């Protein structure tokens, strides 16, 4: 049975690997699971056929036989639980790695997304300049805390895990603003993630989609 995921036909990130299919692709590559990708336009994502798979009309989704999943965190957790390599064997270490997945998605990602969304939808509003410092402070508070936790360790809790995979993809969302230039510990952490062969295969595959769909003529 072939695993199929969905991704943007024309990713707004222009192939920088910031869309959330990237974390699923990376996890699939880490565990050695071959997969197909069904590309969707923004219109197709909102059609009933796709909403039957994803109630919110978004990407990514994951299909494996009768199983349909949405939410990148749930998909990566599913992969990590069913293949070796992304979660430790020890029960407590496994629970801590899963904790880091949740921390990435529910503690670190929200202020990063909120700041990004403000730039996209509010930058021409009268309140934007006044609101920006507050949004920036929230992002930097999390980065300070995360940087302090990481210290000089390579990964968040022992060996590389799905928690690191998720955290690296979340931190990469800051790349355009170069915020991580102020956090060398975190910049090096992201670079370690990006250096993994599985990451690079996933990145090249999503970039190939963007390149192919942007070709003139
Ligand atoms: N919490 C969801 C977020 C999914 C999400 O925001 N997907 C974006 C792409 S990264 C999307 O489909 N955006 C288009 C839209 O919402 O219309 C997850 O982690 O999978």
Descriptive terms for the model:
single chain; four-stranded mixed beta sheet; 217 residues; alpha+beta; binds glutathione
**Count of DSSP E strands?**
4
Low-confidence stretches: none
Largest sheet: 4 strands, mixed
Give the class from helix and strand content and strand pairing: alpha+beta
The fraction of residues assigned to DSSP E strands is 5-15%
Ions, cofactors and other bound molecules: glutathione
Detailed description of the structure:
By secondary structure, the protein is of the alpha+beta class. It is built from nine helices and four strands. It has helices at 21-31, 42-45, 48-51, 72-82, 91-122, 128-150, 162-172, 184-194, 197-214; strands at residues 3-8, 35-40, 61-64, 67-70. A four-stranded mixed sheet has the order 2-1-3-4. α1 packs antiparallel against α7 and α1 packs across α9. The longest helix is centred in the middle third of the chain and has 32 residues, at 91-122. 32% of the residues are buried. The structure holds glutathione. Glutathione binds next to α4.
Give the arrangement of secondary structure elements.
Blueprint: E1 3-8, H1 21-31, E2 35-40, H2 42-45, H3 48-51, E3 61-64, E4 67-70, H4 72-82, H5 91-122, H6 128-150, H7 162-172, H8 184-194, H9 197-214
Parallel strand pairs: 1-2
Antiparallel strand pairs: 1-3, 3-4
Residues 19-20, 45, 58-60, 71-73 line the site of glutathione.
Short recap of the structure:
This protein is an alpha+beta fold and 217 residues long. The protein is built from nine helices and four strands, in the order E-H-E-H-H-E-E-H-H-H-H-H-H. It is globular, with a radius of gyration of 18 Å.
